[in-house]
Amino acid sequence: MENHGKAEKILEILAQSYGTEPWNWHTRRNPFRVLIGTVLSHRTRDEMTDAAAQAVLARYPDAASLADAPLADLQDLVRTVNFYKRKAARIKEIGRILVERHGGRVPDAMEDLLALPGVGRKTAACVLVYGFRKPAVPVDTHVHRISNRLGLVETQRPEATERALQQMLPEKWLLLVNELLVKHGQTVCRPRHPLCSRCPVRRYCHGASGH
User: Fold this and answer.
1) 189 labelled ligand-binding
2) Residues in domain HhH-GPD (predicted)?
């Protein structure tokens, strides 16, 4: 089976297993919320990210209010996340840039998103997929690890995984691949001691028998 056909079959099975509705702050499908939530999420557990993102967005729901927010208040609101002082400064600066350069709106182009502080390719792709429903491939550790473990790609770096999956998948799955592989990575295909006996796509996995 060619990789593109194998990839689509795997994603179909994972969609049946996990569903296709985004979870936590992604469900709001609001570009500003997704941007702020994703910046806060770096190296932080989901529940800590959710608490911080909800606190910030309840008090500062748009770019203008965030730009004017006292830094000390932002630091207090995001204290539950790792590197909270740095992230508080970043989201405040993001608010300022959005107001000054983009009329207070989140841009929907990759290059404009990458120009924002604290925004790399994964964060930018999350905004495109979850905020704008535009096809992109957010590649985190789960997506990179599982794509290689399943033999869909043979890559060393997330950027190469992103390019390979973009070339391999039709638009429908570009909108879902991150969601599905993250859920699978969190519950079954873990970095260490994956639960291969519970894996719905084990028969497609190059590494299953070796774990």
Assistant:
1) yes
2) 40-187
Res. 75: pLDDT tops 60: yes
Ligand-binding site membership of 126 (annotated): no
Domains recognised in the chain with CATH numbers: 3-22+137-210 (1.10.1670.10), 30-132 (1.10.340.30)
- Residue 11 has phi, psi (to 5 degrees) of -70, -35
| Digit-coded pLDDT (tens) for 97-123 | 999 999 999 999 999 999 999 999 999
User: Mind listing the pLDDT tens digit for each residue in 117-154?
Assistant: 999 999 999 999 999 999 999 999 999 999 999 999 99
Q: Give the orientation angle of helix 158-168 with respect to helix 141-149, to 10 degrees.
A: 60
Measured at the CA of 36, the angle between CA 68 and CA 191, to 5 degrees, comes to: 150
3-class SS letters over 77-107: HCCCCCCHHHHHHHHHHHHHHHHHHHCCCCC
Do 154 and 148 meet the contact criterion of CB atoms below 8 Å apart? yes
**DSSP-derived secondary structure for 31-57:** HHHHHHHHHHHTTS-HHHHHHHHHHHH
